Amino acid sequence: MYSPPPIRSILVPTDFSDGAELAFAHALRLSVALRARLDIVHVEPENDAADWRWGPHVGETLRRWGYDTGTTPSELEALGVRRTIVSGSEPDAAILAEIASSHADLVVMSTHGRAGLERWLRPSVTEAVLRRRPVPILLLPSGCRTFVDLECGAPSLKRILVPIATAPNPAPGFDAALTLLRAFGGEGCQLATVHVGEGQPGADLLRPPPGLQVFHWNVKGAVVDEILAIATTWTADLMVVVSEGRRDLFDELRGSTVERLVARSPVPVLVVPAEWGSRDAV
């Protein structure tokens, strides 16, 4: 019997910014729901010293959310939370190295969602990590609607939108979406697929559990525009997309479809590698 890969370890990079604090809150809430280890990583230029007083504050956040826990390093370690400082001048390389060494199953990052010329003038660390996509990456675009309440920690993950196409195989996206829905539980959850173009490729690969409402949309038009329109009008809480990375020079110049979706998305986007959780063993 096939089952998707478990998420036992989550990694969240931080630069102590507001965006990083938002990513941290989602990573922490996911680690609680999935009972996963949480690695918080800060990359500091050589000869500089990081000050964890600026955050993220794990113990304080958990207590604010109603969990009875301590705040000392040993108490946090007992909870499966580890804070790591890495020295280096290339944050993307350092983060990728930490993903490998910590055996992370999921990465959570904020992103400025740069597009067009700005992508060339100010390339982002998140984009560099996303291009190599070693594991699923939950991205929180600047200004997006979130699914974790920062004050009380309550999740509001009820509607997940999964764009699908002839390629790549959408099965890894379905698996990741169902994993998160199972973790947060609750009634009234809905999952929708959207395909821009002819047919409905891969929809039969979705194996919804009893009680999950499923919808399918098939539309025509500009791929990114149509997907974002449905995410907005349907008020999705999360978008899950499967990525094969950049395929040609055109993608290199303007960004892949996934990168362009992330740049404009009104909600968090979970990017799942096409090779994640192969169902070959079914």
Report on the structure:
It is globular and about 55 Å long. Helix 7 links the parallel strand 6 and strand 7 (190-196). The model is unreliable at 114-123 and 248-254 (pLDDT under 50). The protein is built from ten helices and ten strands. 33% of the residues lie in helices and 22% in strands. It has two domains: 9-141, HUPs (Rossmann fold), CATH 3.40.50; 159-273, Rossmann fold (3-Layer(aba) Sandwich). With 282 residues, it is an alpha/beta fold. Strands 3-2-1-4-5-10-9-6-7-8 form a ten-stranded mixed β-sheet, sandwiched between helices.
Question: How much beta, percentage-wise?
Answer: 15-25%
Largest sheet: 10 strands, mixed
**CATH topology descriptor of the largest domain:** Rossmann fold
Overall pLDDT score: 83
Could you give the distance between the termini? 6 Å
Helix content: 25-40%
Assembly state (oligomeric): single chain
Provide the low-confidence segments as ranges: 114-123, 248-254
Helix-strand makeup class: alpha/beta
Q: Spell the H/E element sequence.
A: EHEHHEHEHHEEHEEHEHHE
Beta-strand segment tally: 10
Strand order of the largest sheet: 3-2-1-4-5-10-9-6-7-8
Task: Please give the CATH architecture of the largest domain.
Answer: 3-Layer(aba) Sandwich
Briefly, what is this?
The protein has 282 residues and is an alpha/beta fold.
Topology of this structure?
Blueprint: E1 9-13, H1 18-34, E2 37-44, H2 58-64, H3 73-78, E3 81-87, H4 91-102, E4 106-111, H5 117-121, H6 125-132, E5 137-141, E6 159-163, H7 171-184, E7 190-196, E8 213-219, H8 223-233, E9 238-243, H9 249-254, H10 257-264, E10 269-273
Parallel strand pairs: 1-2, 1-4, 2-3, 4-5, 6-7, 6-9, 7-8, 9-10
Antiparallel strand pairs: 5-10
Helix pairs in contact: 4-6, 8-10
